[in-house]
Specification:
By secondary structure, the protein is an all-alpha fold. It contains nine helices and no strands. α4 packs parallel to α7.
Amino acid sequence: MNKTEQRILDAAMKVFAEDGFEGARTRKIAELAGVNEVTLFRKFQSKENILRVVMMKNRDIVLQALDPVFLNENRENFQVNLHNLCENIMKIIEERIDMMVILIAESWKKPEIASILAPVPKMILMRLTDYFEQQQKQGRMRNVNPKVAALACISYIFYSNLLRRMLRDNKSSGSKEEFEAFIDIFLNGILESKDKK
């Protein structure tokens, strides 16, 4: 990918975050990228294709962030590894929450947007589910439904970011104490050990 294409994609992410997919205008994307609209269409053909490439790049970013942690899994204990995984996913979502919220809202009305967005969260869910299955096989994790555990983990990370955005609560954004509390609850539950069956 050349510099012009990268500038167009960076501009598109900003415009999608501000205006949504429906409200985004290719002219605005082109102006922000410092190119003319003809160049934009020559490189990407359509607004839908720009969104598709943006999501593919985001998928690659997710893989780059998660794969080193998955590859490290035998060298670090489960708690450290899970902490690193969640921290990486949290960072990726925090950096893209504005765009994600708008596009997810639009995807309810437009199935074609949903089909472009779906592969990234599906891939995260699948990789995390597989990871939890491996941890169970190695005796590091209790025998619970790994997909439900993955959903619980991803749900907290996504919805805590979404809720902060809705409440305009920037103070606690990325709060280390809050994140550590989630990891503790996720790993140890909320029951006192004497109450656990």
